[in-house]
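Cross-posting from the modeling subforum.

Setting up a comparison between two proteins and wanted a second pair of eyes on the formatting. Protein 1 (sequence, then structure tokens):
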Amino acid sequence: MTPGITGRIARTAAARPWVTIGIWLIALAGAIYAAGGLGDALTQDERMLVETEAQVADDLDTALRGDLDADTVETIVVEADTARFGDADFTGALAALATQVGAVEGVASVSVPTAEAPFPVSEDGTTALVSVSVEPDEDGAVAEALMAATEAAQTDGFTLRNIGPVTGEAAFDALAEESLLVGEAIGIGVALVILVIVFGALVAAGIPLLVAIVSIIMAVGATAIVGQAFELSFFVVNMITMMGLALGIDYSLIMVQRFREELAHGRTVRDAVTVAGSTANRAVLFSGVTVVISLVGLLIVPSTIMRSLGAGAIIVAIMSVISALTLLPAVLQLLGHRVNKGRVPTAHPGREPRAWRAMANAVIRRPAAWAVAGVALLGVLAAPAASMRLTFPGIESLPEDNSIRLATETIVEDFGQGQASTLVAIENAGGARAAIEALADRIEGDEAFAETAVSWNGETAFIDTRDVHDSADPAAERAIERLRTEVVPAALAGTDAVAHVGGDQADSVDFSDMIRSMAPWVLLIVLGSSFVLLLGAFRSIVVPALAIALNLLSTGAAFGLLVAVFQWGWGAELLGFPQVDGIAPWIPLFLFAVLFGLSMDYHVFLLSRIKERYDVTGDTKEAVAFGLSRTGSLITGAALIMVAVFSGFAIGDLAEFAQMGFGLAAAVIIDATIVRSILVPSLMTLLGRANWYLPSWLAWLPEVRIEGGHPAMTDADDDADRKEPALA
């Protein structure tokens, strides 16, 4: 048997390892240079790419009452410990603040309360709001300078806090960057420990981390280029780092372990590289294709954040595969037997793990009992998912000492202002003035709204009102639905006026509705493509059907845990997570696509070894035991690494990141333990030869081996290896 395409790629890369590494160094230099323009390529603008009711209202507001280039109003909350408005100390603090902030380049004007115009000052006189008009801030420079000026104006007895779209965006960026750094530090540190345990050798453990870091750098550079043509959210960087660490380590782990096995079996370095390239790297290539196709489903969702997350994950998955197929063989060729340096005395790369063989035998002896227990457990874990509510986390999800949260709570408590606003834009309203005034009164009388006002621009009327409830409160969502389905239609019945309800909460409702409408299409793409790929790879309709059913079960279990922890609050305080009123609308669809791709990774690695053994012995039980024993430690190790990476991103202060990281970590550990270690072997044992059933009308399918037998080595190859200098 001659080497397949991945084996030939590995052999070519290893034939001139320094040339291969030199090409990669040039590519890395180009990626680092390109990454310098990443800031200009990313945006915080998270919007839907289809027209929604909220978007129509906002567009009318912008066209008739606003200007995209107009100044933005920021607020500085000034709280006194003991002083009262009108006291000399309070007046001096306001004057000093106005002087500091007014000197900032980009600040157009500063408005402070005075004795003649004391609004806005709280009733007890301890809090005042300073309004700052700032010019458009594209690079964040004005926001940073404004926050620095506010900090410089701090004085004893007073607390100053910034709040507004400009400084809020900067603060959110800082939280995201902090989450990124924490996630990287935890992920890399824990991953290295786990790799040492899995490989039993320090040198081998460091190689996957090297490949992952290279993949991340290349992906960031590629993203900076793609971002010049397509609108990408800044979330893409977090996605690249998280998925790059997970996939880069995962893919190279498989290759390194197979290489060490072949060396232990007496093969030469060049032959070991080729065999590992023909077997393990073929599985890596197939798994990478599966991950990419699963993530393609996210690209059809008309949302900048969903497309950005999908694009980032796809780019880094491609880079991880290319690194494993080309860079890794060159590195292994240079290391040779030194890959086992720093070995733990009890470790032996060629020995079959006895614990996993015992586990496999235990499952195979009682497959029905294990299968029933596994399915029942997943069903129990998935049950809470039925009560999942989609909503963006509100201000209460931030830490209690967060400046944005404290400033918002002060404004709400001391000034009665809502955390968000709602807008009703009414076209062709000229003949319905009385009805519109009555509508405004009706809205003002609703307990969910306050400070309602009507303004006109020609034939278009605008009703502005403040939301009383927190954005994540179910009452806020019900209020928008009530406006759209009951209040507004009833008030304007019999008139020619056409109303559009917009604002922050309305936009959130529209986003959730869009996600629900796109979910069936994403499921069709992910499930359909996965079925076709596995059908072609294993020439069986049972294998892909079983894989899809099990992946759906494990994903459902992850959703259930997500709801139980975040929405119900079970163990949230213990784990350090915020309890919120729902799950961010983009999380479930994103998790489904990513988890399906990652689950297929493990499924392919396990099934490829099972199929390899079955083709030799024809014994399903022996093949299952062999496959699980040979991949159990790798799959578990890879899963633990992914859990560490994802958990690192889950412990930050942003609720959406916490939900994403926890959901991914939970699903991966469920998949690697209950599904791959129990359900797959037990169900395959029960099915026996039926696992490989292929209808006669599909016999035309080509036979594709993901991991096959060892490629034959030529005499010339052996001679070439004998001429290599000793590296061990």
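Protein 2 (same layout):
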Amino acid sequence: MPPLRLDTPVKFLKGVGERRADAFARLGVHTAGDLLRHIPHRYVDASSVTPLASARVGDEVACAGIVITKAVTPTRKGLRIFSAVLRDASGALECVWPGQAFLDRSIAVGQTLLVSGPIRHYHGKQMAPREYVILSDAGTEAPLEPGRVLPVYPATEGLSHRAIRGLVDRHLDQALGLVTDELPASVRQALRLPGLAEAYRLVHRPATQEEAEHGRRRLAFDELFDLQLTLSRARALARRTRSGGIVFRSPADLIAALGASLPWTLTRDQRTALNEIVGDMTSERRMHRLLMGDVGTGKTVVALFAMLLALENDHQAALMAPTELLAEQHARTVERLLQPLRIKPEVLLGKLTASSKSSARRRIREGAARIVVGTHALVQESVEFRRLGLVVIDEQHRFGVEQRSALVGKGAAPDVLLLSATPIPRSLALTRYGDLDVSVLRERPPGRGSVRTALRTAAQRERVLDFMREQCEAGRQAYVVLPVIEESERADLRAATTMADELAQRWPGLTVGLVHGRLKTDERDRTMRAFREGEVHVLVATTVIEVGIDVPNATIMLIEHPERFGLAQLHQLRGRVGRGGNESFCILMTGDRPAERLRAFAATDDGFEIAELDLRERGMGDLIGARQSGGFELRQARLPDDEDLLAEARVQAERILAGDPALQRTANQALRARVLARYPRAVDFFRTG
């Protein structure tokens, strides 16, 4: 065997081989270095194991024992309970997992289990484990090492966390000797962070939970530091390129006319955001601003004021939306609001006839089209603007960098305003949008209907469906949202197709529509337009309706299996109702015991508060994602808990870049290589100082 290197393919490691290497590949582990970076996602504390016989009712303990019996028991309410009896030298204890009958397939008689959780009294003493770890299979010995904290690794089919723990442990010492620490010693010492090799040892082989956390924070800092180096460099370059923007003057005639014609007054947040946008547009540097607001906070109106400022300065404005439905919705809103000003937007969509597209392109090229609303059809080579001054991009995260750049490139340094209806915490905004100026809308304009959120169980299903029927027969409309499309043996969920058929049979007097991601776009849009026009009373859907459809008459949303959705996603779905003046209802159809996270969701309609809850629950990596961040996801950083690390990462990144903007000095070249390994697209940022 050749000497181990961090780039050694994982299949050549002792104990791996071809089959396990294939399984590791599904986890993104291809080399020995990847295995070292495959960090435990939780730990089970076995440092103080309580003998089974000594566990007392009311205590929260960790115990270990051999499974001597197991069973799945149904209850009268249909709940299936998995139970297993463990035995050690002191005695036995029953463990129960309500609603988790599937554990019968993974826990076997003869295995040694480590369990932790509360001890309760129910027909005798028993534990309801919060965590369990299979220490060994039947017939093998697995004595617990005293003082051991057991890491639990992300696993996959054919490769258990137990097997991964053994392989990491076997190769850890050798791999640690190969680790190079790219973080400057001055940064490490200033923040009292362990060396990189020591951090890996702490997360893979901790003696205490505190040690594991100490190691994780070092790895988290590296992720945040690399990201802040990239964003700080992007900001610096953007400031250079944005210095030659259009200097708009503010005669404000059209803006004043729009303000006078609105049937409501702008909220304080809207006025603040508009002042920030006007300040950008009248300055010498190009605007590059994100307008982030919850559903219903009036982003489109603010953007419209900005577009009118461009028009007053003899420039055109373009608004690009990710779907034709959303573009049509924006066009209707803009046309309605600008009717008193006798300004009509031009609409350019892919579905238009060839002659209609040609006419629209001619009006855009000649400048007769002053405000243009469209989809990605706007970025086609055949589209030319006479004098594009402002680009507004809605749901900007749904466009690629190339599409956004292509539209901006249609003008000579136009200002850019990005819109997002997905509230995110400030800490996350500093990482995802660190190169943008950010305006936030939290207040809702008056006239919006309230949305009542309720948790209901299966026992209340009939009453819920009767309520929905009554509302629809009274002239309202309803959504029913499910997480899957079709029934399958592997998913015991109510599928959208099945639900649509059931409701159509149950309510013959109502029209039931169905949309999901597997439908062709034309068919899906046709059904959604019919719902918008009131021809469909009940729309059964998967999450394709999360954004892009505005039906003020829709007042009910029933979400099946809400536990399968993230909180931010639930909030986006809930935002589809309450868009008119009528009271609306969001009903979460849960199991017998609604999870605490769903109770917290039902208790607030503040999207930013929900984003914080979602961030704590799901972690930053899930929220920022590799595609959105342009590189590796942030796997170890946990916001808002690591906000202190984020702030330090930003300070240290700007300090280092101030002396070495492209990280070209010898002392920083290893750091530069690491940053580009994480963010390959950032290579242009670091070509030259």
